[in-house]
Amino acid sequence: MKYMLMMYVEEKARQDVGPEQARRAAEDHAAYAAMLTERGVLIDARAFAPSAATLVVRGNDAATAERTPGPFAETPEQFGGYYLVHARDLDQAIEFAKACPEDIVEVRPIVDATC
User: Fold this and answer.
1) 104 and 10 in contact (C-beta within 8 Å)?
2) What is the pTM of this model?
3) 55-81 pLDDT, tens per residue?
4) By Cβ atoms counted within 10 A, which residue in 15, 92, 97, 98 is the most buried?
């Protein structure tokens, strides 16, 4: 089964890190991605631009859809990126999440359906 490991980050804290901490964080994520790749479970992984670049669209009618700049969630933690993995079950997906370099990881099963 596929699972999305969604990482939440405190953007303010990210802005305050020095170059050495940023380098270590990048190395930690590279090592984590390598581990998932070696296990044959990594499907995709991406980091997101800061939430200030976010645009929320509400409604599906082009004439009336409402566009709102900024993050949808008004919390210090913002959706910062994801790892999409294969896992045999939720327990294995949770083990992958525990190994992630980020402190907050939401584990969500992917439904195999066409949108």
Assistant:
1) no
2) 0.81
3) 878 888 777 778 777 766 666 677 789
4) 97
